[in-house]
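User: Could you go from structure to sequence for me? I need the amino acid at each position, not a summary. Structure tokens:
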């Protein structure tokens, strides 16, 4: 029986070699995903060339999906050794990109103090660490750790998308979309879509050179889903970020 479900494989440092790419294609990969959140445009274009070379040598058609980063907030760097955020502990969040620790977390979002309200939930990284806002002042956001854990580096910071003054596609997204569309990818995925107009902005750059996949990962996108589906060529349910932004039901 013909297989209808397609397999998408994300390429990372460990798989971005001719041998690994060949193994992935032989195993049944239908679409190769390039995660544009990491690496440089030049690295992604070199990976695209390797994929085309391997697919051509095998005589196997394969699609390439370029996944745009979208607007992404990050915390200032925690120590490399890691920091334990303990449930019940108070923490302050401030706008900036300086170092973070267990007491103060800097967030690279200038309007943080305007866009956060008491009782809001703020999540770090993949959702394992969360905190609840208790108050806001003229200089910081006061919060209490609800779900704790150990963190290091610069984890992502998830705020309520309803009030965030950051929109997709970003200027960087549009520049990346132009580069990968010109290079011949089959699909471009738009992260953190909120409305059909976001898809239209990307369409103005990509045109008919690549299909657009709208990633559904916010409550705002769910509210405008029919119009988004009409504007895009396909939709992707990004359950990780959607699960952070919306209740399970």
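Assistant: Here is the amino acid at each position, in order:
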């Amino acid at each position: 029986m013909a297989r209808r479900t397609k397999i998408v494989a994300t390429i990372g440092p460990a798989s971005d070699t001719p041998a690994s790419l060949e193994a992935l294609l032989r195993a049944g990969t239908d679409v190769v995903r390039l995660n544009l959140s990491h690496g440089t445009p030049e690295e992604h274009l070199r990976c695209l060339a390797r994929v085309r070379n391997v697919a051509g040598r095998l005589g196997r058609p394969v699609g390439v999906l370029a996944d745009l980063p979208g607007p992404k907030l990050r915390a200032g760097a925690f120590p490399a050794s890691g920091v334990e955020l303990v449930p019940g502990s108070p923490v302050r969040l401030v706008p900036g990109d300086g170092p973070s620790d267990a007491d103060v977390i800097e967030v690279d979002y200038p309007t943080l103090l305007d866009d956060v309200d008491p009782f809001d939930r703020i999540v770090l990284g993949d959702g394992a660490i969360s905190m609840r806002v208790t108050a806001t002042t003229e200089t910081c956001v006061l919060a209490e750790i609800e779900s704790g854990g150990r963190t290091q580096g610069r984890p992502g910071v998830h705020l309520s998308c309803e009030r965030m003054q950051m929109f997709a596609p970003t200027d960087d997204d549009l520049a990346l979309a132009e580069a990968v569309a010109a290079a011949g990818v089959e699909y471009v995925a738009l992260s953190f879509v909120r409305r059909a107009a976001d898809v239209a902005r990307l369409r103005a750059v990509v045109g008919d050179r690549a299909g657009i996949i709208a990633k559904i990962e916010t409550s705002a996108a769910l509210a405008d889903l029919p119009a988004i589906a009409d504007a895009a060529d396909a939709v992707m349910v990004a359950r990780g970020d959607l699960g952070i932004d919306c209740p399970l039901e």
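One structural detail worth keeping in mind: The helical segments are 18-27, 41-58, 112-115, 171-183, 196-206, 219-223, 225-231, 239-245.
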